[in-house]
Design a protein that fits this description.
Blueprint lengths: L1 H28 L7 H21 L2 H23 L2
Helix pairs in contact: 1-3, 2-3
Length: 84
């Protein structure tokens, strides 16, 4: 059981951390021209649903990773809407 949870936290850390550089670059440059609004909208809703799924299962690696990714994705989505 412990190894399963460690794998979950490792996977969550890697996928979330891989998203951070792009988010920081977008925040810094405010360049959202290469981002598809439809794709990012779907992505953000998908991340929110993964967060709910993790919460319902009590799977904290899923909850933690998707909470962080959702915050970043929402910020980028809002920038896309604002700086079209």
């Amino acid at each position: 059981m412990l190894s399963q949870e460690l794998i979950g936290y490792l996977a969550a850390s890697l996928t979330t951390l891989s998203f951070v550089p792009q988010a920081l670059h977008t925040f810094k440059t405010r360049d959202v021209s290469g981002i598809s609004l439809a794709m990012y909208g779907c992505f953000t809703v998908g991340v929110a649903l993964w967060l709910v799924y993790g919460w319902l299962l009590g799977a904290w690696p899923i909850v933690l990773a998707n909470a962080i990714t959702l915050a970043l994705a929402l910020a980028i989505l809002l920038m896309k809407l604002r700086y079209r």
